Request: fold
Amino acid sequence: MIKQIHVLYIDDNPFDRDLVRDALTATGDGFLVTEISTRGELEAALVNNVYNCVLSDLNILGYTGLDVFDIVKKLRPELPVVILTGTGSEELAVESMKRGVSDYILKTPRHIIRLPYSLASVVESTRLTLERRADEEKLRIAGTVFQASREGIMVTDPEVRLTMVNPSFTHITGYSFEEVRGRNPSLLRSERHSADFFRSMWASLSRDGYWQGEIWNRRKDGTEWPSWLSITVVRDENGEVRHYAGVLTDMTERWEASERLKFLAYHDHLTGLSNRTHLEEHIATSIKKYGRAEGYSGLLFIDIDNFKSINSTYGHIFGDHLLKRVAHRLIECVSPADNVCRLGGDEFMIYTVDRPSIDHIADIAKLVLERLALPYEIHGQTLQASASIGIAVYPDDGYDSEVLIRNVDAAMSHAKEAGRNTFRFFNHQMKTGTESYLYLRHSLLKALENGEFILYYQPQINLLDNNIIGVEALIRWKHPVHGIIPPGRFIPAAEDNGLIVPIGEWVIHEACRQLSAWKKSGISKMVVAVNLSALQFRRGDLEQTVATVLRDVQLDASCLELELTESIMIKNIDNVLDIVKRLKTLGLMLSIDDFGTGYSSLAYLKRFKVDKLKIDQSFIRDLTSDPEDAAIVRTIIQMAHSLNLRTIAEGVEDAPTLEHLRRLGCDEIQGYYIAKPMPADAFVDFAAAYGRKISDARVPTPTDHSDPVGPVH
Ligand code: C2E
Ligand code: CA
Ligand code: CA
Reply:
């Protein structure tokens, strides 16, 4: 009910106005009356939405109550109109009722006393009508949502019997409404959850009135599927349960994507064999399991002879086929407990466990050589291949996977030197190269002192607007005699001998100094990405270094991005997690380099609060021609986005690859197609030229100052 009814009263007869005013105020302050007499005043008054009804005389000078009605309906269709009539105009009164006037009242003292009741009831019924209409609209919207929702919706009565399901429910579960009407939703139950699971679900429903979680269900056809279910308890005004309403989201796609990523984390995507991570874990668990047994375990390193020339003669695709065949034959040579792994390229490893003697391990090597030497039929071509095999034996040649792998590597080199198509066991004389090792350490140290290291910068582009958003800093050694040496030639050695720590500190300092200088000269809105090695986490005070550098060169932490590899994250996990957390509190960005090649665990990505994934070049190279690679890249991008991470593809060398990545929703790219890594001063020219080209809406081609050497891997 409305407490005070505001009446807009239109009449040009002063006598009548007195009469009406008296009638309305006689009952107290239930009415507030605004009196007007002209059409202009009426239109002006209706602009304000403050009235509850309009009361109009039927005959006003120059127009009638019906004109008033028309004006009101045009400007305020929801306002009720009541008309006052003098005697003798009943016909007009009837006409006005037909048109939709809410009531009419005779202007005689006897009838006018009805006026307050008439107005009050007209106003109240209008209010109720409007309310009902709003409710109906709400219901209509709810009904449409129910019907059209992509989520499956189900409603039960208080006894948990289904009373309503929507079309998506039928689509997802395979059950029509007729089939489930009156039944308990437990008909969807899979075997995957214990009774406890459901007990705690009901406990939280009765405690919180709400439950949500991941649940595996079973479709009508018997297949099981993962879903996200939220259940709400619907109660009436008295708190009695009226319904349970459940919303089911089909999680199959997300689940498959994460399963795929789990598979990727442990497998080589070309052959489906284990990858290095998997192999290392396998060796570690086997050593635990068989370590004390009498037998021997052997690590075989198998490298296909002349694979590079096969690849360049017959092409990549042919080479890939050959690698798949090789994988197949290797599996046939071992027993199920053994692990066959592809390290990458044409390098394979087999870890065979618990053999009675070393001779048995040699037998496997012989079998492998024999099998791999059989002719291959690929694309109508017949081809012969051979392999060189190195062997390291546990426990004689090493007590853990790291040492075994290092030694098997040496053994394999010797097999190659021995003329290929043969195998060699590791022996301790093989640890050669020590002199050159010491020599390299000495020259790296000198290089650091003499300032022979320089940084090249490779731009990174945002695919949304094609703008440069940052650069990756890549180290080069400007050797006084040998010229520019790429990092692949000295970083592994620096990692071995520990010099990567001071070199890495220099890189962070130099990259930040350069960016700060660029910012001062007006190249703004850029981030510099710096590569980190695992050792920098284990030794050296990384957080302190970064904080000091940022302060020294007056650079905001948000301008620095650190590139970590997946292997850093899994080694010595807690310590790394601590350091990474502290680094993140400084405010800098973290990305995972070479993503997809290592241990791509989602759990780590979440724990480390990573910002960006750099999809490894190996997936990008053949993106447009290899559907397998395209599927992997798509999965990575999807997963990244569902975890709110950005993605950058590296190694983009041509426009079709760029366009493909754009279509897959990749956020950023980096690669020779935009520019090769280049010295700082060349980058300034590049950025200026690029800016001009972007404003002509064209993506530029590489500049001439760029890196003369390709990457070394
Ligand atoms: P990364 O971090 O994966 O760097 C990308 C490498 O790919 C770079 O090789 C780059 O020149 C190359 N590259 C970029 N675009 C393309 C392309 O379109 N096609 C091809 N084929 N290659 C492309 P670079 O500079 O030789 O670096 C090699 C590796 O050395 C780096 O791999 C990184 O792991 C390491 N590295 C470089 N600088 C540092 C550093 O300061 N510290 C540490 N710890 N490692 C570094
Ligand atoms: Ca990198
Ligand atoms: Ca990389």
